[in-house]
Amino acid sequence: MKKVLFVLTSHSELGNTGEKTGFWIEEFAAPYYELADKGVIIDIASPLGGQPPIDPKSSDPSAATEDTKRFDKDVELQAKLSTTHKLSDVNESDYDAVFYPGGHGPLWDLAEDKNSIALIEAFYNSKKPVAFVCHSPAALKNVKVNGEFLVKGKKLTGFSNTEEEAVGLTNVVPFLLEDALQTNGATYSKVGDWQPYAVEDGLLITGQNPASSKLVAEKLLIQLNSKK
């Protein structure tokens, strides 16, 4: 049985707007079910442990998908989500891969979280897949391997500047993800706003936006199944 760690944000404040943020339900639910339905065991962790904040906009009916509707009725998964492990208590050696769902929260906490940074480095150095979608590639911002940014020279994607502009948060977020990844040497690519798009470069798997979350999980599953 393969075992995957999901890492969620603990950050709930949308800058100084007075609004709330957190993780995006679709980006958690779609990959979770894609993997769990295929027999993958999943643990969930967050920097503070316990219930991670859900971006209220992601539970709006306009953002609903089959996976989010399934999540809304899934009492068992909701209970599991309310008791996430503390990031400082999890160990890379217990898992075959790590997956980071997005939402705006990771731009604030996971981008700077030392436990998260060390965890990604450990997975990557142990030749295990590391997967991210939408805003969660922000968690790669300060990750280094052999003294260089992990993303340097890597093909990847993530929430685009035009998508950030479309949601009106260009001047609210602490940094623009597309720009930050390129500043660290990544070969960033994207497709049209809100279109499904995922990029695989060795162990690194990234998706552009919520519509890309299942694609990332599918690519991750292929990598997991290819390992003995």
From TrEMBL:
Chain segments annotated as transmembrane: none
Q: Name one GO molecular function term.
A: transferase activity
Annotated GO CC locations: cytoplasm
Its keywords, alphabetically, are: Glutamine amidotransferase, Lyase, Stress response, Transferase
Keyword Nucleotidyltransferase in record: no
Source taxon at top rank: Bacteria
Q: Which Pfam families match?
A: DJ-1_PfpI
Could you tell me which InterPro entries the record lists for this protein?
A: Class_I_gatase-like, DJ-1/PfpI, Prot/Nucl_acid_deglycase
* Domain (DJ-1/PfpI): residue spans on this chain: 27-221
SUPFAM superfamilies per record: Class I glutamine amidotransferase-like
Q: Which residues form the signal peptide?
A: none
Gene Ontology biological process terms, A to Z: methylglyoxal catabolic process to D-lactate via S-lactoyl-glutathione
- Coiled coil ranges: none
Q: Which family does it belong to?
A: Belongs to the peptidase C56 family. HSP31-like subfamily.
Please report the name of this protein according to its UniProt entry. Type 1 glutamine amidotransferase domain-containing protein
